[in-house]
Amino acid sequence: MPGVAHARRETLGDRAVILCELDGSHRRGALGSADGETIEVAARMALDQRLPLVLVVASSGADVHEGVAALAGWGRAARAVVACSGIVPLLFVVTGPAVSGPALLLGLADQVVMTSEAYAFVSGPRMVREFTGVPITVDALGGPGTHARSSGVASLVVPDRAAAINAIEELLWYLPSSTDELPPLLPTGDPTDRPAAGVAALIPASPTGSYDVRELARALLDDGELLELRAGWAANLVTALGSIGGRPVGIVANQPSMIAGTLDILASQKGARFVAFCDAFNLPIVTLVDTPGFYPGKDLEWRGMIRKGAQLAFAYARATVPRVSVTLRKSYGGAYIVMDSKRMGNDIALAWPSAQIAVMGARGAVEILHRRETDPQRRAELEADYEARLLNPYVAAERGFIDAVIDPAHTRRELAAALELLASKRERIVSRAHDNGPL
């Protein structure tokens, strides 16, 4: 009986890849042991030839007629895919069902593109209803909207297979074929010394005013092109690909228009995974900082804010690619530390004159330092004094935590110069089996 998995070397755009496709039209894509072997062979080909692995999934899960042999085949496939992780890009497409084992494969991918007809879950609606008594539809449980907004599985959602392959081609623009290479330089006519006119005006005068940091990022990137990944999930942190001076970069940015740009569990996980992805594939990381801190709440603390927040710190601390940060406005407390601060291994830390770098804001500081002061006018004076003396980037610059305070209009030029300076950066990595990061 013919299998449902087929693998070959293919060209997408102008890039060679190993393409493995699970044919959902044949036996609903049920995976037998031979199909697991095909995925394993495809992954080994990608690893040996140092080419991206593109897996197109439409599968109802393991073939029940084969029983445990089919499960063993999935195990072989998963092990081979894991062996590729961090060495070649793992770019997966879901065009139909991805149930049970195939769904878990999506969690191993670097980026997942889902079509509007796709769905994915480990346990389906019937099992959910039997175990919990709650009826739920296929789309609500594992449709593309659910994975774009709630689970974070989907990096991009597109209408159909053709659009999904186009999305993979666009991702490949920014990525090398393997960790052994640098990302390809992209053609652009956008001069690096172009003034980023008007970027400062995007930030409201009020310290609590919101704005869309993506507009600011587009003003800094070549031709205003920004490929945002996982846009609907943990939207208080933006993760995206772009280029500056033709050099592909990863963008990590606090989003003040969503819960004031604070960091929570999901944002920490989102940022950590993206930083690790950029580090694996030699993408310089540009971090745009504007956050008042971690989002407070007993629920977050009970759900593991300590462990999850540490994931972002861990990812930045071990990243060896060029790292440039720009503090736009607020950078307080623990959030200052984890958003690629200087002593976390950041290479070049820039700040706008509007930056406020401190343990906390003026109001919080006065409540602690002068908690016995009850006169509102006096408290306002103390807040103004604290802000004037400490809430500016020059104090941090004097102590070496900021390398330069720059004119916002020159931000694109400064970023391009920093990336040019760091182009030859190399770090010697200590050999070890693996690190033991917070999970």
Molecular structure report:
- With 439 residues, the chain is α/β, with parallel strands linked by helices.
- It has 2 domains: 5-173, 2-enoyl-CoA Hydratase, Chain A, domain 1 (Alpha-Beta Complex); 200-355 and 392-421, 2-enoyl-CoA Hydratase, Chain A, domain 1, CATH 3.90.226.
- The chain is built from 16 helices and 15 strands.
- The protein has helices at residues 33-49, 68-84, 101-106, 125-132, 138-142, 144-151, 161-173, 213-220, 265-280, 298-302, 305-318, 333-338, 362-369, 376-390, 393-398, 411-421, and strands at 5-12, 15-22, 53-59, 90-99, 111-115, 119-121, 156-158, 227-229, 237-244, 247-254, 285-291, 323-332, 348-351, 356-358, 404-405.
- Strands 8, 9, 10, 11, 12, 13, 14 and 15 form an 8-stranded mixed beta sheet that branches. Strands 1, 2, 3, 4, 5, 6 and 7 form a 7-stranded mixed beta sheet that branches.
- Helix 1 runs parallel beside helix 2 (68-84), helix 9 packs parallel to helix 11 and helix 13 crosses helix 14.
- The longest helix is centred in the N-terminal third of the chain and has 17 residues, at 33-49.
- It is globular.
- The chain starts with a strand and ends in an 18-residue tail after the last helix.
- The relative contact order is 0.08.
- The model has no long low-confidence stretch (mean pLDDT 91).
